[in-house]
């Protein structure tokens, strides 16, 4: 009986040691009182930070990045976030842009529209070289799709 209890304890210890606790994600950018992006990453609490939200895209609309009062991407006011993004990444935190959100206006009207949106995301947030990148030359780690409505097409 004792060896069965020991074996159960050993298996529990192994499974606990291999758990992926600490892989918490947070949305950042919708509350001006939440502090800076760099401060959020410096807490050590998060493995992923989703910059939220790119809330208007597709359907021939002008893409709209809404970061509350943190910055205005349309006057190049968010280029300063590049240093915060790099600070987060240097701590091992993955930084992504979140598209959609509850109040978002997004839809894809065709396969061509979907390709255009994908190209826009690549050029402006990932490895592309658009001259109008909202976060300057900072390259994000990915895209978070927070799609809460729309059509399953495209």
UniProtKB/TrEMBL annotation:
Q: Which domain of life is it from?
A: Eukaryota
- What's the protein name? chitinase
Q: GO cellular component terms?
A: extracellular region
- At the top of the EC hierarchy, this enzyme's class is hydrolase
Please name the source species: Tetracentron sinense (Spur-leaf)
Q: Where is the GH18 domain?
A: 22-154
**Which UniProt key words apply to this protein?**
Glycosidase, Hydrolase, Signal
**Per the similarity annotation, which family is this?**
Belongs to the glycosyl hydrolase 18 family.
Q: Name one GO molecular function term.
A: endochitinase activity
Which InterPro entries did the record assign? GH, Glyco_hydro18_cat, Glyco_hydro_18_chit_AS, Glycosyl_Hydrlase18_Chitinase
């Amino acid at each position: 009986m004792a060896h069965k209890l020991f074996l159960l304890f050993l298996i529990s210890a192994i499974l606990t040691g291999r758990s992926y606790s600490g892989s918490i994600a947070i949305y950042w950018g919708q509350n001006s009182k939440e502090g800076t992006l760099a401060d959020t990453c410096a807490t050590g609490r998060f493995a992923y930070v989703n910059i939220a939200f790119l809330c208007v895209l597709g359907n021939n609309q002008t893409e709209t990045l809404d970061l509350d009062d943190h910055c205005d991407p349309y006057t190049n006011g968010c280029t300063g976030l590049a240093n915060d993004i790099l600070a987060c990444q240097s701590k091992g935190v993955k930084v992504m842009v979140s598209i959609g959100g509850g109040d978002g206006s997004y839809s894809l009207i065709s396969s061509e529209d979907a390709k255009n949106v994908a190209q826009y995301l690549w050029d402006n947030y990932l490895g592309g070289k658009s001259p109008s990148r909202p976060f300057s030359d900072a390259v994000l780690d990915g895209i978070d799709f927070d799609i809460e409505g729309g059509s399953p097409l495209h």
